[in-house]
């Protein structure tokens, strides 16, 4: 057995370890399946968008020069020579003194360089309009390359695709798109006290809360979860299941049995693999201190606290970002957490030298949002069920003051 | 043809119309599929959780009374009578002067009422420990009903399930859970200028951006999208497709062809159905004014602007919430938008009497987040691709001031 490298890390040191792990592979998928997936190619406009000059208003296409000086008092008259059909190129050519009827989205006829809104015109007879308002060239017109110009970078590799991004890919005719695969994440629950959720617990036993919670968390994080089931406190069983999980997935989560023996097993199992390295054992956050990250070959094994609340918070703070990182995402910093601002309802002391994650309930009173702490032991899940927010108390802070404005991570 | 009821609504009046529509049906699904779904039953604890007294620390179970007065200077001695096996009930009974070895999560033996952490003990010999610290009864113990008590309401119908909720359902042995079905949403794209995304547009034609964008948006909103394809400017075709969509789905979205004729068609098609009612035509937001909501039988038909940026904003502001509403969700108010605070980079004027949705890019500079407007016509999609936020300018505001702190909706 190799000598393990033990050390407790600060949260920022944990993030610095992510680049030790390779990204997942790429795959090509149909555009309609691509929302929420991470782009694995740069997208450059292969043509101008929209590709032709379009009207942005219903009205008349004309030469802007004809309208210079037009006003309510001295309207100018134009001869209507026809109408543009939607989706078609017209043969009509607009000359001085002429106009062509046009609808929003239609292609400008040759010779026209602006569109006057119907509201600023008056029908004199079937073939003649009055125009009350001067137009600048290109007014109410989208230029042929105004949305995207040919050759322009539209979206970069590493970007998680939003609905509007799907829209621009559709506009460019990308019916298939190259994305990163979703990281596959094996979930192992350990402990002699853990039983399947379909069974009735005897005194001393609890149902397998962690597997199902982690399954949901992995999906939330953009990974594909894979339940490996419950492993009792047996070193060889854990080795076997862990080897199988490593072969078949990108990340392995071992949610620690709470027994003392079990915790040693996790370390022993990790060390039993060739090319294994424990990157840290212990991180300065609360709850969640007894977290482990190991590298076995190119794969990551996370050892999670058995206490469900601790496991969830470790997942949100580190593992979700880890899955996004190896899943190719490169803009995670901004949108990782959804936050709101609120005022603390009470004073909350904290220990310096670790990040505390306080569970809170957001309550609105006369338009003011208050954060009320939900107290409870980290072995209880009710604190997180009753909470709808987390407040991070920084490493170097002594706590939070009553009425202080804090950033609340929505959960 | 019935006389249509036309009127422009304010955004808040639009939300008041939602209860005119029935909720979707319910279904029972496996727990692992339930994340993000809306609960359609109240969940009451059918047993105490965890169901037995558990240690929250590694150490020794004992009678707290034995430790009263203990200190570093005058430790008390206890006789170790054995160890609790994880997941098992022990036969051991703790009497005065005795202690039992216990690990986090294990069941307290009879007679014990507290757990001393290993750190506050010292091994005297194999069967004896010194305890340095007094304990209160129940210290380092989770009571049998401390997580949830039998009969307690755990989660309410109408709640969208988060990972921690999945956890508590697992703890209660709910392997299946009753949820609302995901609303099915048919998407119809109309207009003579629209072509399938796999085709090469001729001048005057554009690819079907709206169908794909709406498909992604419906998924983001928790609905099941269904692409009905492109309908050319033909009244009978649109009637046929709309009837089919109404028969098979809960909501129909008609993304307006931009031609004048097409817009009339949408209203005419709606009015051609028996039991149809136009609830509004026009809403005081920008972009997005020419939005339609109609009720046909019990189903909703939304007419969306053809301009893609307008359609996306109308979706986020109204239709996403509508899908969540008929999908049974009842806590949508708080988490509907994910927001951050930033300072405006420039002054932005606005028209009173309508809600303006300004596209912005969030830029961080020395720890300060700035919102920079992304200007552009609503027929362009690049504004929303380059933006990562929206700033709402209220109905009664004249605009935003430079350096003003604004709430930015993350997109």
CATH second-level architecture of the largest domain in chain A: 3-Layer(aba) Sandwich
CATH class of the largest domain in chain A: Alpha Beta
The CATH topology of the largest domain in chain A is Molybdenum Cofactor Biosythetic Enzyme, Chain A
| Structural class determined from secondary elements of chain A | alpha/beta
End-to-end Cα distance of chain A, whole Å, is 41 Å
Mean residue pLDDT of chain A: 92
Question: Portion of residues in helices of chain A?
Answer: 10-25%
Radius of gyration of chain A: 31 Å
Number of helices of chain A: 8
CATH superfamily of the largest domain in chain A: MoaB/Mog-like domain
Strand content of chain A: 25-35%
Question: Main sheet of chain A: which strands, in order across?
Answer: 7-4-6-5-9-8
Q: Name the overall outline of chain A.
A: elongated
List unreliable stretches of 5+ residues of chain A: 1-5
Largest interface: A-B, 100 and 101 residues
Largest sheet of chain A: 6 strands, mixed
Secondary structure tally: strands of chain A: 28
What's the number of structural domains of chain A? Answer: 4
EC number (chains A, B): 2.10.1.1
Domain MoaB/Mog (chains A, B): 186-325
GO molecular function (chains A, B): metal ion binding; molybdopterin molybdotransferase activity
Function (chains A, B): Catalyzes the insertion of molybdate into adenylated molybdopterin with the concomitant release of AMP.
Short overview:
Two copies of one chain form a homodimer. With 411 residues, chain A is α/β, with parallel strands linked by helices.
